[in-house]
Protein: Catalase
Amino acid sequence: MSSSNPTATLANGQPANPGHVQQVRYGQTNGGLALLSDTYTIEVLAHFARERIPERSVHAKAAGAFGEFEVLEDISDLTDADFLTGIGKKTKVLTRISTVGGEKGSSDTVRDVRGWATKFYTEEGVQDFVFNDLPVFFIRDPIKFPSMNRSHKRHPQTNVPDNSMFWDFHKNNPEGIHALMHLFGPRGIPASLRNINGFSVHTYTLNKSDGSYVYVKWHFKPDDGIKTMDPKVAVRLAGEDPDYHVKDLFKTIEKGDYPTWSVCIQVMKPEDVQSAPIDIFDCTYTWPYEKYPLRRVGRLTLNQNPSNYFQDIEQACFSPSNMVPGIGPSADPVLQARMFSYPDAHRYRVGPNYFQLPPNRPTNKVYAPYVRDGPGTVNGNYGGDPDYVFSQLRPVSKSARLQMPLQEKWNGQVTSFATSVTDKDFEQARKLWEIICKEEGGKEQLLHNILPTLVDIPASLRKEVLDYLGRVDKTLKDCLEQGLKGK
Ligand code: HEM
Structure:
């Protein structure tokens, strides 16, 4: 045996005898009574029962990789965020790309939104972008998020996904029509994770310490182009090779064939918000490209697989609230709610000290002595420093680069508010339908994707769903009705 082989120990470092169980042997048989003093066997069995952390309530199945972001254009007119300043500047990143509805072991090639989460380890703290591969979202009243996801997941009684539940939710929460049209379109199943977009979906701000700011939507565009998967191939792969996308990303990076994305923004000045053709604080709308063209910012490259999936990807905690100076939120209530929800999920899923773990640890100097103790503290815990604010024993200085939540001036009344749906909500969905109809085989494919979901639902609900889809375009309803005749 080579002397470079590691010597087996227990977790406390004492020598261990792997594969052996201390026992009172029963003669020459394989029988015996195991001993409570066999700490090694007990440690191995007890740890096994505790080696899972709760999987994410949504976005549980994913691939992940490290990489880098490089600034390619000067956007110093819009932001003074350190990692976006200086052409050629590079920042280390971690990206996790997920499906939404399925569990940790579910198939990759299902029709679903793909989640996109990137962590930038900047010199001013960790910046996370927690995006999706579709440009719009299904809801715009944040309290509906759990409901929407449950309607896409398993039925509470049968424990299987359920088309009636799916359509019952969407028909009665019709603001999701634009996202639904994307979901049932070709992009609902990507060919690979290397060929998807990442969209911020929400409006964010870019700002500078002089108080100036603009509104932006972020777009990550794959340099290798968008590629989608034929639904028949997807169904086959979902059974034959359920980890198809995860394997593909890992193998491609391992080969050195690194996927890249162009990082772009759409920009709107605050004074143009009122006259904009869309509500920029409503995440069910896209901004028209003609009016708000894409401006390139940089390039994102994934070039390093994690050396341990559990440590680096399962324990990775991404949150829209992780923002550095120069980047800010907007008044999109869904974004506001998300800024609470993610760190809340992390404290539950990974533990209150999640930010001390390798994938979540900032690379700049952190001094947060009012966040200390708790399970698994490994950062020195601020030694004897005061654990209360405004100490004169160890005064704390304040950075001039404080992140302010919003630049706008607000003046309004507190109300209990829910959005309502108007014909305007169907306009962008209709435009998308028209685009799909112009693509070769696009219309047939969309119908083919929707039809099976309408077969096994109650007739009254089916009629209402057809009316709902008819609000996009009467031909869509007519074609679906026609298609259902053969079913
Ligand atoms: C009210 C709306 C939303 C709520 C409350 C919400 C909440 C959550 C929660 C609790 C998780 C699991 C986090 C974890 O356990 O680490 C999650 C994951 C995720 N969400 Fe949302 N979400 C919302 C909307 C959105 C939107 C609009 C997007 C995209 C623009 C999005 C993208 C993602 C992604 C990419 C992940 C996976 C992050 C990862 O890879 O760890 N979510 N969301």
Remarks:
- The first strand starts at residue 23 and ends at 25.
- The pocket of protoporphyrin IX containing FE is lined by residues 56-59, 62, 96, 98, 115-117, 130-132, 137, 142, 145, 201, 283, 316-318, 334, 337-338, 341-342, 345-346, 349 (CB under 6 Å).
- DSSP finds twelve helices and twelve strands in the chain.
- The CA atoms of residues 69 and 91 lie 5 Å apart.
